[in-house]
Write a structure and sequence with these properties.
heterodimer, A: alpha+beta, Alpha-Beta Plaits, four-stranded antiparallel beta sheet, B: about 70% helix, about 0% strand
């Protein structure tokens, strides 16, 4: 079964990679990625740009509403995600604890919707 | 009532709750087999104590007071369960013994039976430790969940299921018969050591939760030793935990950085704890029944010697590991053996031990990769060492360990 690890960063953490993309935790992230691949649990992953580069769109009663910044006005913002193939949520929590994102911010573990439901979306 | 008095009352309640929790739960559940109801009844009694003691003063025998209050609460609970006919004998037991035990300060200590119930083979081994922490020590599900890295709600459900099984699964509240005792006791010791291990691994800098759990585990071992003074392995386990605990302060430097055992300053080890460990280990050996925990404690005793001699006798450690491998060839033992052999006979000898381990078995096992990386580096195999360091870093959970390994990888 597949799980998403949703990685949240604080503004301070985002600030650290602002200028030259040299994330101070790069070594830890690379090693983590390697461990995921070697353990044969890695499905996919990606990192997101800074929250302030986001734009939020809503269409209400036929009218477009466009807003600067991310959807949720919270201190910690989504910074990236990893999709893993694992037997149980216990294993997913173990991998979340090893994620460098867990010791510098927070990692939410969320199961992907069942495949039948996902197929319903994609047709 | 003034503030300091109130504080005294609260402290007393806390102390009595801590010291008596397991005894009261064990006594209240030994006939009903219903741990959940016993715990509910006891927590009602504790709430009642918080209401009454500040006004009426702390009773002369707080434990007996709690027992009486819990018993009344339990009678209510059982009456509400509407299984009156079935629970008639229980009610009779609860009411008949009421006055007698309230008057006497002593009531039988049934905690040993409770420990054996928690580690019963019919219960999922993963639940042995959580059950002990909850029923004997009174830790709540949320705190146990944290240590086990499980969502609090999930841990609550698993504990509930385990207790249901204990209540209706015919699991006996008894000390196992002689022929089953070694195996059953082993399960109890494993569960206690698992609690200690969680506290040990999770010690991240200022984080208190690790330390707390290690202390709870040592408390459990002391209780068990008091109940089974003749069991060598019980004493061996206590010695093992004391040796490790003695080094706690030395595991981080002033800046919170991880310090491996070989680089620790023995002046920072706790001598009183080491002496206590030595006493227990010597007592355990007198029984002449060596087991896994005694040998593990013996390995730690050789490390502790460095405080006196300034050096580590790796040959002795290798011999103890070889003995340990014959008893239980666990993954951790084999990794430890490889590290010790490398110190005694050179990195190539250690690496050969690691190579004999099935790689599938260690794909998630961090200590294996840390030892492997270290040995490859010592052999000058830089590229392979970097690979192994990456695995060890990627599998590390403690940020201090991660930093240490990143630094060593270079």
């Amino acid at each position: 079964m597949q799980f998403a690890l949703l990685i949240y960063h604080s503004p301070e953490e985002f600030a650290m990679r602002k200028n030259d993309y040299s994330d101070p935790h790069l070594g830890a992230w690379r090693a983590y990625y390697k461990a995921l691949v070697e353990a044969k649990v890695y499905v996919g992953a990606n990192a997101l740009e800074l929250p302030e580069t986001g734009t939020t769109v809503r269409v209400k009663e036929g009218k477009r509403r466009v807003q600067d910044g991310p959807y949720a006005d919270t201190k910690e913002q989504l910074a990236g995600f990893i999709i893993l193939e694992l037997p149980s949520v216990d294993a997913a929590l173990e991998w979340a604890a090893r994620c460098p994102g867990a010791s510098i911010g927070a990692v939410e573990v969320r199961p992907l919707a069942p495949e039948a439901m996902r197929r319903g979306f994609t047709g | 009532m003034n503030g300091s008095n109130q504080e005294y009352t609260h402290r007393t309640i806390e102390r009595v709750a801590r010291e008596s929790y397991g005894r009261l739960v064990a006594y209240l559940s030994v006939h009903t087999h219903d741990l959940a109801s016993a715990e509910d009844a006891l927590s009602n009694a504790l709430v009642s104590a918080l209401n009454h003691w500040p006004q009426d003063g702390v009773p002369k025998n707080p434990e007996a007071w709690l027992l009486t209050a819990a018993r009344h609460s339990l009678i209510d609970v059982i009456r509400h369960q509407k299984v009156v006919l079935e629970s008639e004998p229980t009610l009779k037991f609860l009411t008949e013994n009421s006055t007698e035990t309230t008057l006497s300060t002593q009531f039988p200590d049934e905690r040993l039976k409770l420990l054996f119930v928690c580690a019963h083979p019919a219960i999922d081994p993963a639940m042995h430790t959580p059950l002990m922490l909850q029923t004997v020590l009174g830790l709540d599900a949320a705190r146990i969940a944290q240590a086990f890295l499980i969502a609090p709600k999930t841990m609550g459900q698993r504990l509930f299921r385990a207790k249901t099984k204990i209540r209706s699964g015919g699991i006996p509240f008894e000390i196992p018969p002689e022929r089953d005792l070694p195996e059953r006791l082993d399960a109890v010791l494993e569960a206690i050591y698992a609690a200690f291990g969680l506290g040990w691994d999770d010690m991240a800098g200022a984080d208190q939760r690790g330390r707390d759990l290690a202390e709870e585990a040592m408390w459990l071992a002391r209780v068990l030793l008091q109940l089974m003074p003749g069991e060598a392995e019980v004493q061996g386990l206590l010695a093992l935990m004391l040796y490790c605990e003695a080094r706690r302060a030395a595991r981080r430097d002033a800046k919170g950085r991880y310090v491996p055992l070989s680089e620790q300053n023995p002046n920072q080890w706790s001598l009183p704890l080491i002496e206590e460990a030595e006493h227990h280990l010597a007592e355990a050996f007198k029984h002449g029944r060596v087991g896994r925990f005694q040998v593990e404690a013996a390995i730690q005793s050789v490390h502790a010697e460095r405080a006196r001699t300034g050096r580590t006798d790796w040959t002795a450690i290798v011999l103890f590991y070889e003995q340990l491998l014959r008893i239980s060839p666990a993954l951790g033992t084999r990794a430890g053996y490889a590290a010790a052999l490398a110190e005694a006979n050179g990195p190539a000898a250690g690496l050969a031990v690691l190579e004999s381990i099935d790689t599938e078995a260690v794909s998630h096992y961090q200590p294996y990769w840390a030892v492997r990386a270290h040995l490859l580096q010592r052999l000058g195999k830089t590229r392979e060492a970097t690979d192994a360091y990456d695995r060890a870093i990627g599998l590390a959970e403690d940020p201090a360990v991660r930093e240490f390994l990143l630094h060593k990888r270079g």
